[in-house]
Amino acid sequence: MFYKKKRLFIFLISLIIIVGLIGFSLRERSNLTIMEDFIHDTVGWIQEVVNKPITFTTTFANNVKEIRNVYRENQKLKSSLEEMRQLEYENQELTKEMNELKETLEKTDSDFLQSFNSIQASVIAKSKDQWFKQITINKGTQNGVEPNMAVITGKGMIGKVQNSSPFTSTVLLLNGFDRSNRISVNVDVEDAETDIAGFIVGYEEETDNLLLELNDNNQNLAEGQYVFSSGLGGVFPKGLEIGEIVEVEADRYELTSIAYVKPSADLEQLNHVIVIDRNMTTLDEQEEEGES
């Protein structure tokens, strides 16, 4: 019984002391006790030690998240940029094809071609062999296409039909011509009574120009003059534009002239062409076409 009272007494004294300390510590004071300073500094140091790794971990996690977000946005931007480039390329190709088709239609409706049977066709294949400059078109004998017919675009002549099957035909381009496929041509000369006659005898790969050969050294031949098919030889109609003279030179004996002719038509970018039948349409055929 004595011990119980003693313990109770000690507990009450301790409680009074604790309450007193709490009250003492809560009152407004400008100076702290040594113990309070020690406890305050210890708690602050512990908080700093604990907060540093927590702050570092949080910052690191946020940085990683931010990097991942930046990477995803960068990938999206790259994808969008690639799509824009693809659309721009497709737009350019469509614009080129539309312009080429427009030129082809305008050429077909021109007064010059009204006198001939013209057949519009599209290019479906190009030869990968550099030794055979050929294209394949989607028109054949069923459409009236026959070998040796001239083939042009809205800008000028590109070659001739080499062979044809019922539904497709192969066209030999001008840059594949040689002396066995030479073209009889006229050079349009201003203020001259007659045009200059010559032959396209080949193609020079280094300059991408056709070779025009004359039988004599004609002094009237000059740069800037245009070359047209003469109609001689029984293959090509007269008056098809072939190209422009960009250089003239005489042989070392000055007996003949050689001219370099830049083709009017682009022989690399071909999508739509016109096949020209040398035989002129009759009046009855023109009336039937007008009625239809």
Quick synopsis:
With 292 residues, the chain is an alpha+beta fold.
Could you please describe the fold and organization of this structure?
It is a single chain. The chain has 292 residues and is of the alpha+beta class. It has helices at 2-26, 34-108, 283-291; strands at residues 116-126, 134-137, 150-152, 157-164, 169-173, 183-187, 196-204, 209-213, 226-229, 241-250, 257-263, 272-280. The protein contains 3 helices and 12 strands. The strands form 2 sheets. A 6-stranded antiparallel beta barrel has the order 1-2-5-4-3-12. Strands 6-7-8-11-10-9 form a 6-stranded antiparallel barrel. The longest helix is centred in the first third of the chain and has 75 residues, at 34-108. It is rod-shaped and about 150 Å long. The model is unreliable at 281-292 (pLDDT under 50).
Average pLDDT score = 77
The outline comes out as rod-shaped
The helix/strand class is: alpha+beta
Biggest sheet record: 6 strands, antiparallel, barrel
